[in-house]
Specification:
It is a single chain. This protein is α+β, with helices and mostly antiparallel strands. The chain contains 12 helices and 13 strands. A 5-stranded mixed beta sheet has the order 8-10-11-13-12. Strand 10 and strand 11 form a beta hairpin. The chain is rod-shaped and about 165 Å long. The structure holds adenosine-5'-diphosphate (ADP). Adenosine-5'-diphosphate binds next to helix 10 and helix 12. Adenosine-5'-diphosphate (ADP) binds next to helix 10 and helix 12.
Length: 464
């Protein structure tokens, strides 16, 4: 049967305390009782010895007389305490005998002691034992005394009361500790179980799709705080992924629908005979299909980069040379738009994947060409820092709204400026650039130039 944490803790604590208190009580009881018995036994022996000594003092050698008044008072006092005295002189004649003096009281005292001990301390198995003392005064014998008392020891009412009080104290301490333990166990368990239950609730909500909730453990415990942080991070990551997935689906649908709708409306008009299938119209359909293919191939590339744990085949690559190669591949586009593209800097060798580095420069230059107005300049610059190489691609084009500088690296993100221009991009090129740069251990950022156009700065570690 599954039990609540608070029950388990309370029961566990209670059991521990119960066992501890029981052990302490037993041990205390055992040792205190033993010590007390020993103490009482010694006390009784000492008292009996004291009695004998006091008796011997009551003999007056000058007139060969015993102080009977004193002995009587003394004997009765001792009798009430459980000591039965019989005093003899040197001639063995009885001087004073408690039994003779008050037989009834003697038996009453003896019976009370025997009964009390047999009922309350039967394990002692004692009996009245007579201890014989030779009495002397200044070294000369004056008589002898028989002192009987319950041996090895006996407890009077006060002694029993003391033992009872002791047991009661131990019992009260035990009970209080037990209650304390149950409360402590309960409180502690609640402190732990509350955040755990909350985590269960939250993870249930998260699995139901609510990623905005955040968890605060408030327990002040390191492990629970770490749990809270992990749950929050999980919710945040899942939320981001969910948003990305939603946006991806919407954007993808949008990106694919527009060119398809164009092609289909053109073809429909041609089939229905509304339009002549002129080479221009067919070309326009062909262009749309090419754009679609390009988007799909970009998506393919991105999937590869992001999903397949991109493996780089590293080799020494001269970035300057590579930039020149990319520039050459854009010769036709540059000419068509009358753009001047300058590759500046010096040879700079870094360790990287040549094909992927080519792709980075290619995508950046492709954008620079796309978003430049006719007849402008484009600068590709390679600068060397002690541990890294910096590649800058600058254009005099349409620029990027400052608030969107971060966003353009997200997949399918296109600024309104670029959408309005119908430049035919898909919004994936920069996402590919960012993934490839990160795979090389570098960073990429975009900024607007002071005058006009934008600047993309890629920093790549030389030994990345
Ligand atoms: P696209 O295929 O749309 O160019 P990218 O991921 O390469 O996709 O770029 C994302 C968006 O960033 C572009 O649509 C455009 O709005 C903006 N952008 C990228 N490069 C430039 C640039 N050189 N000048 C102005 N805007 C740019």
């Amino acid at each position: 049967m599954k039990q609540k944490l608070s029950t388990q803790f309370s029961v566990g604590f209670a059991l521990i305390v119960l066992v501890t208190v029981a052990l302490i009580s037993l041990a205390a009881n055992f040792f205190i009782s033993r010590q007390f018995q020993k103490y009482v036994e010694e006390q009784q022996k000492a008292f009996s010895d004291g009695l004998a000594e006091a008796l011997s003092d009551q003999y007056d050698a000058s007139n060969d007389q015993w102080n009977l008044d004193y002995i009587h008072g003394f004997g009765m006092y001792a009798l009430n305490d459980g000591y039965i005295i019989k005093l003899y002189d040197n001639e063995h004649s009885v001087v004073w005998d408690a039994e003779n003096h008050d037989m009834t009281l003697c038996h009453q005292v003896m019976n009370t002691i025997i009964q009390r001990m047999e009922t309350q301390k039967p394990e002692v198995k004692g009996t009245f034992v007579t201890h014989c003392y030779d009495l002397s005064q200044n070294g000369s014998p004056v008589g002898h005394a028989d002192i009987s008392y319950y041996s090895p020891y006996y407890f009077n009412e006060n002694d029993f009361r003391f033992i009872d009080a002791l047991n009661r104290i131990l019992l009260v301490i035990g009970l209080l500790s037990l209650i304390g333990a149950v409360i402590a166990g309960f409180v502690l368990a609640r402190r732990i179980s509350r955040p755990i239950s909350r985590v269960t609730e939250l993870t249930r909500e998260i699995s139901g799709g609510n990623y905005d909730i955040r968890f605060e453990s408030g327990a002040g415990t390191k492990e629970l705080e770490a749990l809270a942080a992990a749950v929050n991070q999980m919710a945040e990551t899942l939320g981001k992924q969910e948003n990305l997935r939603k946006r991806l689906t919407t954007d993808m649908a949008h990106e694919l629908r527009t060119p398809l709708a164009n092609v289909s409306s053109h073809l429909e008009a041609i089939i229905e005979g509304v339009w002549e299938p002129t080479p221009e119209r067919l070309q326009s359909c062909y262009d749309e299909i090419t754009r679609l293919s390009a988007t799909i191939s970009d998506l393919e590339k991105l999937r590869q980069i992001e999903n397949e744990n991109l493996k780089l085949t590293k080799e020494p690559v001269d970035l300057f040379e590579l930039a020149q190669d990319v520039r050459t591949s854009f010769e036709k586009e540059l000419q068509m738009k009358h753009l001047n593209c300058f590759v500046e800097g010096d040879s700079c060798i870094i360790s990287g994947d040549k094909r992927r580095l080519y792709q980075i420069i290619f995508n950046l230059l492709s954008n620079a060409v796309k978003y430049s107005c006719d007849g402008r300049d484009i600068h590709i610059r390679i600068t060397e820092a002690p541990k890294s190489a910096i590649l800058t691609v600058e254009d005099d084009g349409i620029g990027i709204p400052p608030e969107e500088l971060q966003l353009i690296f997200e997949r399918f993100y296109r600024t309104d400026r670029s959408r309005n221009r119908k430049t035919g991009g898909s919004g994936i090129g920069l996402t590919i650039v960012k993934s490839l740069v990160q795979a090389h251990g570098g960073t990429v950022r975009a900024e607007n130039k002071e005058t006009r156009g934008s600047r993309f700065i890629v920093t790549l570690p030389k030994n990345g």
